[in-house]
Amino acid sequence: MRGLTPFRKLALSTAISSCLVSGIVSAQIIAEQNFNNLDSTQTQTTDSLTDGNALTNLSAMNLGGPGIGFNTFWYDSRSIGTGPVTVSSDSSDFIGVSSFAGSNSPDVSPSGVAVSTGTEHNFEFNDTDGRIELVFDPVDTAFATGERTLSLDYWINDTGYEADDSLVVSLTDGVNEEVILSLVDTELEASSSADDGTPNWQTLTVNLDQVLAQAELLDLVTLKVSVDTNSSSENIFIDNIKFESTDGPVNAAGTLVINEIDYDQPGTDNAEFIEIKNISNEAIALGAYSLELYNGSNGGLYNTIVLDDAILSAGDYYVVCADASTVDHCDQDVTPDTNLIQNGAPDAIRLVNTTLAETVDQVSYEGSVVDVVEGTGTESFDSNSIPDVGLSRTPDGTDSNDNNADFAFRCSTPGALNSDQSSNCVAPSEVLISAIQGSGIESPLVGETVTVEAIVVGDFQSGGLGSQGDLRGFYLQEESSDWDTDAKTSEGIYVFDGTSPGVDVAVGDKVVVTGTVAEYFGETQINVTSGSVVKQSSGNTVTPTSLLLPATETITNSDGDLIANLEAYEGMLISFPQSLSVTELYQLDRFGELRLAQGGRFFQFTQNSLPSVSGFQTHLEDIARRNVILDDGLSNQNPDPIRYPAPGLTTDNALRMGDTVTGLTGVVRYSRGSGGSGDEGYRIMPTAEPVFVAENARSEAPEVGGTLKVASFNVLNFFNTLDTSAGACYPSFSRGDCRGADNQAEFDRQLEKTVTALSTIGADVYGLLEIENDYTDGPSSAIATLTSALNATETNCSEFGYVDPGARIGSDAIAVGMIYCKDTVELASGSTPSILDDSDLEALGMESRAPLFNGYATNRATLATTFTEKASGESLTIAINHFKSKGDSGLADSETCQNAPGSDLNCDQNDGQGFWNQRRTYAAEALSAWLQTFPTGHSDPDFLVMGDLNGYAMEGPVTALIDRGYTNLVTEFHSAGNAYSYVFDGQAGNLDHGLANASLLTQVNDAQDWHINSDEADGLDYNTDFGRNTSLFDGTVPFRSSDHDPLIIGLNLQSIARGDYDQDGDIDRNDMLLLRQHLNANVEPGHPMDWNDDGRITGLDIRLLILQCSNQHCASSN
């Protein structure tokens, strides 16, 4: 079930090693890790990492081993880009399990001699070049008694620490996090250990009971150690992590224990049993063991029971009973059916390994039997007047080698977790899953121990046991006969059994599970890591429940997003009879997930509708009801292979948005993406492989006709200055403004794929967006590099050139640009490329609207260039643009946007246009006014506006240009309803536009978006971060060369009679009206509306135009 309380997003990412620890593992120790049994060879990492990566070099990090498992993550706190990377010049970097024995060793003998290598291990943080987080597996402390404590040792090298160095230790339950140790520069220095040949380890000990209570942490906690250093002399070690309890449940034998005895019942003793529990971490064959029963009155052995040759899984129970018809979960029915076990005062039972002739465990009850007792025998005794009670280890599995301390009079629970109740006992009865789920937001039974009997419908166990994935558990569903009548209660539930499950379940198994009800990241679950799982039968079938979208209602997740309310299906096996369309692939490579939509893919609200608060809210409700996440059923991030489409994503076996799947079947889960990251919501964990149908196949480049082809293309932050520690990009000339490739391999891949896409389009002029703003670097600039690469590729053009404005374009790190084919076009004679920025606003009468193009959170400056087509001699001016994005850029936190957004139209008005709509709209108005001044110095009246206006078809920036005489070419030539060039949040729409003014419109042959990018999974692009399989990339095809689709326009430039401003073939009243719009405007010499060439449009120019009219009185021909 979905919890109400929002949680912090924590960096608890994919596990490298995992050994879930729960319950009790050694004397008075809940869980521990001293690293001594883990390999310490070759623990330097050679991974080239980006922020948030796990260290995955198998020779570097330790897989498995005893004690608490742990994961190691690196965060780029120092903005170095990649790291920590061990190379020949930096071979001292060391992160991992260590047995360092050199100078200033942390481990020395009492005499001051460093211990030999391999004798004592610990975890070393050396020159991390960023923040390393050592994240241990969750530890369940709930079943420990007495005062709980956490301790660890730390050793700090005596060296010079700076202000940005730190050591932080914290505890988290996945919701809240509490820092229990924080040392920075001066504190690190003060805590450092002198190199004096003596042991200088310091111990941190905290009272867990106090920390958990004060920080409101749950009993299932995760320990995290964070170290941030940047020098090889800055060396920090940790060791001997221990979760302990003063009265602690202990386990001396460490294998099998006699866990529960019921030897007396009211009336006839016909329900007697002995329960054995496997408290080790490994399965045990019971054929080598036997039970010996002793009569204390004479010390004699009166019965020996040889155990069947069964395999008892770790954490599981084995019940030997007198009569299986009267004892639940009996595994071995022996004779006699009554009076199997003596009634005490005193008596005893011994568990023996007959192969080794060793006593494994022994219990004396109602006193001590000589030589068959641990410590003293129990003072507690069974009752012959109270049913369903006996002697139980309390807590379950406890063994301190003292029978009287370990056993208590408790309710009998054969084959299940021992009870903490001693009265009002009933025979262990199962709780229905519907009662656990409840009809509300959260389970009404959170924190309670429950027993459930149900059918396994989803097998997602860890350790290679899960046949359908790995989610560290499995899903149960009630048999149909056990369903309740409340449609709001789910009949399914997730069972968490950790990374080392004791029982291997399979789909169709009927099992009885006992565990604790919990809400984990919004999902109701039964945690059985300290409970039990008992198989009853196999081969059972459950029919999937039909689930139809749209959902009847929506809810809001903790991120504030609307999602379909599928709470009534949480944990259940379902099937969608409908055809669902792929509507988002953004997280396919990162988390192995995608979004599906009922009723076809989603389009942005303002692509087809005018902005509206009520309309936009209705739109959000509609898409929330109609979409669901399809997960890959794995808990790890960055899967390889990427599951969808089967048998795995490749360039040739690609999934595209708009493809469909019908009959999707799986279990419903509520969670974030793999590792607790990504979107929060209901997701389908498939139990049968989804079969996708390619409804949106890739296409060849569209044929747009005409004699001149123009295209706009977003080149996805094409920087030839790498985003590394050596990067220095405009405007800050630091790495922070480098936005492109992180290394040379990424750049080479990006360059190849970009050139492939451009050459396949085959345009005469390319308007580029998101190219590095380094024009002043001349032949070394990014645009020059791209142009050279095009010229080195076989294309239909013998030589490309680029428009050089002679300066940087605007004040942003990225800029627009133009590349053109010198065979077919040239810069128009007498023209000069021109830049629109804030310096032009005063002349346009718009200075009060600044800033629009310069400074933070503004539009990128516009570049306008007039080209002449060589074949026809005709010219046009192209203006390439990239307006401000819809992101808030800090505006959302302003007091105005928080309290009175209507007073600042740059705030999000919740009408579908996002933030900064006014600034984008003002930029469009300035652009139109600027073009009317013929800024390139050329008088040709044909204007083509292209680029990413960051507004969909019905938003302010686009409609402002339409209101000023421009026509949206994509919607003019094709249906507006299905036009798109970009997908965001699962919704498609046109951000990349081509708009022609009236004089150019009649010369446009066609305009089409080519969907080579927005429909593709970004896992196919040039990036190599997060350990992506580099073989997915294919630079010889154009697909996913960017995140925006290119727009391609075909033109037939024609000579137009002077005065035919609307280019309808005559000069009439309509042309006179167009001229009147520019009355009193100052213009450049030769302007087609300045008939008397005096540099100003006046009434005389109108009279001179009338003389050119095609019809009497300038009557319209149409």
From TrEMBL:
Coiled coil: none annotated. GO terms for biological process: polysaccharide catabolic process. Keywords: Signal. This is Extracellular nuclease with lamin tail domain. It comes from Oleiphilus messinensis. Residues 244-367 form the LTD domain. PROSITE patterns: EF_HAND_1 (PS00018), LTD (PS51841). InterPro entries: Dockerin_1_rpt (IPR002105), Dockerin_dom_sf (IPR036439), EF_Hand_1_Ca_BS (IPR018247), Endo/exonu/phosph_ase_sf (IPR036691), ExeM-like (IPR047971), Lamin_tail_dom (IPR001322), Lamin_tail_dom_sf (IPR036415). GO terms for molecular function: hydrolase activity, hydrolyzing O-glycosyl compounds. Residues 1-27 form the signal peptide.
